[in-house]
Amino acid sequence: MASESNGNGKSGMKRMIGAVIAAFVLGAGVVCYIQGMGYVSTDDAYIDGRIHQIAPKVPGTVKKILVADNQMVHVGDVLAKIDAADYRVKVDEADAALNAEKARLSDAEAKVSGAEAQVEIQETTLKQALLDAGRAERLFAEGALTKEKLEKAQTNRDLAKAQVKAAKEQIIQAKAYMDLERSLIQQREASLETARLNLSYTEIVAPADGFITRKAAEEGNQVQAGQPLMAVVALGDVWVTANYKETQLEKVKPGQAAEATVDVYPGHVFKGKVQSLMAGTGAAFSLFPPENALGNYVKVVQRVPVKIVLDRDDEHVLRVGMSVVAKIRIKE
Asked: Is-contact 301 282, C-beta < 8 A?
C-alpha cells in the first residue's frame, strides 16, 4: 500500500509540473502573439549604404596608389595620382596661346586708336577743304579766280571726303578685328581652364569619409576616364533596406519606430524609424520586370523595399550587406 501511495504521489507531482510548464508555454505564446500583433517583421533585410565608386576623370598612367584595402580615409584625402607630365605641358601650351592672343588684342586696340586718330585728322582736312572750295566758288563767280583753281579746290574737297570715309572704314575693320581677338581670348581662357582642371584631376581624392574596398588598380597601370579603381564605403551613414511583403504594408508609414537585429551582434537591438517606402516593388525595377499582359500571369506576393534609418551607434560598426531581421512597430 505504501508503494502505491508513493507512486500516486510521484505521478501527481509530474502532472503538476507538466501543467505548470504547459501554462508557462501557453502564457509565453499568448504574450508573443499579442506583442507580434503590434509589429511587422521580415528577415529579408540587409544593411545598405553609400558606396562611392572611384574612377579617374582623365586617362593616363597610375603613378602612385596611396591607400590600401580596408583603410579608413577622410573626404579630400588623395587616394591615387596619375602621371601629370602631359597635362602640365598642355597647361603651358594653353597659357602661351592665351598670352599670344592678348598680345594680338593689344595690337588690335592700337590699330583702333590709330584709325580713330586718322579720322580726326581727315575730318580736319575735310573741314579746311570745304572752306577752300566754298571760297574758290565765290571768287570764281566774281571772276577773280580761274576755272583751273576752282576745279583744284573742288577736287581737294572730294578727296578729303573720300579720305574721311576710308578712315572710318578702317575703324570698323580694326574694331571687328579687336572683337575677334576678344572672342579668341575667351576661347583661350576656356582652354586654359580646361587644361588646369584636367591637371587637377590627376589627383584622385576621396569624396567622403569611409573605408577603401575593391581596390583594382596598381602603380603603372594604364587607366581610362571612368574606369573603376576602387570604392569608398561610408560606414558612418548606413541604413536598413527591408523587403516586406506587400500584404504586410497596410499600416506601415514613415516615422514609425523600428528595430533591427544583426547576426554579428547577437542580443543587441538597433533602434530606428521608417524613413520611406519605395515607389514600387523590387520586381518592377529589376532588369527584366514582369510583363503580366502576355497572358501567362501567376499572382505572386511582391516585396516592397522599406528604408529604415538607424539611430547613431558609435559602439557597433555595421558593414554593408550584413543580414538583418527588421521589425516595424505598427501599433502604439
From this structure: no
Are 115 and 163 contained in the same domain? yes
Q: Which structural domain range is residue 124 located in?
A: 85-200
Q: What is the dihedral of CA 164, 166, 169, 170, to 10 degrees?
A: -100
Using an 8 Å Cβ cutoff, are 91 and 192 in contact?
yes
Alpha helices by DSSP H, 37-146: 85-142
Going by their DSSP bridges, the two strands 60-65 and 257-262 should be labelled as unpaired
Nearest CA to 316 out of 273, 267, 276, 275 is that of 267
Q: Which residues of the chain have pLDDT under 70?
A: 1-16, 18-20, 22-37, 284, 287-288, 290-298, 332
Count of structural domains within the chain? 2
**pLDDT tens track for 104-140:** 888 888 888 888 888 888 888 888 888 888 888 888 8
Q: Bridge-partner residues for 64, per DSSP?
A: 81
Bridge partners, 274 (sequence order): 308
What would the pLDDT profile of 88-109 be if each residue is shown by its tens digit?
999 999 999 999 999 988 888 8
Query: Do residues 77 and 89 share a domain?
Result: no
DSSP secondary-structure letter at 233? E
Exposed / middle / buried, residue 7 (Cβ in 10 Å: 0-12, 13-18, 19+): exposed
pTM for the full model? 0.68
